[in-house]
Amino acid sequence: MDAIGRSMLAAAVDGRMADVSIFSPASPQAGWIVELAILALAIIGIIFLVVEGILFYSVWRFRRRQQDADGEPAQVYGSEPIEIAWTAAPTMIVFFLVLVTTRTLWEVEAAPVTPRAGDQSLFVTVIGHQWWWEYRYDSYDGRKLGFITANELHIPIGDDQIARPVHLTLQSGDVCHSFWVPRLGGKVDLIPGRTNLLSFETTEPGLYLGQCAEYCGAQHANMLLRVVAQSHEAFEAWLVQQAQSAVEDPAVAAGKAAFLANSCVNCHRISGTAADGSAAPDLTHLMSRETIAAGQVANTLKNLRKWVHDPQAIKPGVLMPAFGLSDHEENQIVEYLRTLK
Ligand code: CUA
Questions:
Q1: Is 214 in the pocket of ligand 1 (CB under 6 A)?
Q2: Mean pLDDT of the 136-150 span
Q3: Which of residues 271 and 12 earns the better pLDDT score?
Q4: In the chain, fewer beta carbons within 10 Å around the N or the C end?
Q5: Multiple choice CATH, 250-338, 2.102.10.10, 2.60.40.420, 1.10.3720.10, 3.40.50.10490
Q6: ∠144-147-234 over CA atoms, to 5°?
Q7: What is the Å distance from ligand 1's center to 304 Cα?
Q8: What class of enzyme is it (predicted)?
């Protein structure tokens, strides 16, 4: 998808472009990171100005003049004070940067290990796949959840009384990925055979865009993700809806049968049906998501039909092949999927 198409998709939700700049942080964690970035940029900027200043001054001050004698100018070899200075100054600067970076890392990473009393914490296990995100909702405010969704992460916002931190347990189903939502936190890798943690909290409702930040194959650039931060009430309602089994609509029984009779069932899961695959996104509440193909295209009838017909046309390399179904069967399946609200 081209850049214009993608920004239109980002704008579709609330009528304005979603901001992805690290310079407009919406969580304390992202705030600490940007403070560090600005400090480092300032130090680097000063070094640049000093070095370039000395360079330009030297070129101008020691330029060749008319009254200069012919031949080489005086050759100077070594200066102990200068050599000591340019060894000591960078060492001190790097040491200072190490200290402030370590402090920020410590602050950002302290959250998962020190839960605060009175918080309503959300715990989600995020599993990176080529090229989509699996979210297993573990618990919220001490209550067990246990449903699975994909690509669009819903989180509650905190308020003056109650903080609602989000604790993500990051794992990979295949290769290395990296979870990055610039306005909410730093990048944290999802590494096969290893578990990483990432925590953040926000009080600002809205849509936060993110994406995979570690090269993971052909469609790395289209491994997008969305975080929907909503009020406690809206989030609770969403939890209730997501925990339900798929709706049974007799009008699309033929589509459901076609879904279960074809290869769809090997990879996808639809709660309450025989489809229990885990290699591809859970489709139980597919229509509650705004996008398909990991945030790549809007979840419209046209795109869904195109996806079922030939996923490679939208996401070349995607593990879901075109199954060569008849038009009739494709339509039935799409009609069934459209009822999965
Ligand atoms: Cu997943 Cu890059």
A1: yes
A2: 94
A3: 271
A4: C
A5: 2.60.40.420
A6: 80
A7: 23
A8: translocase
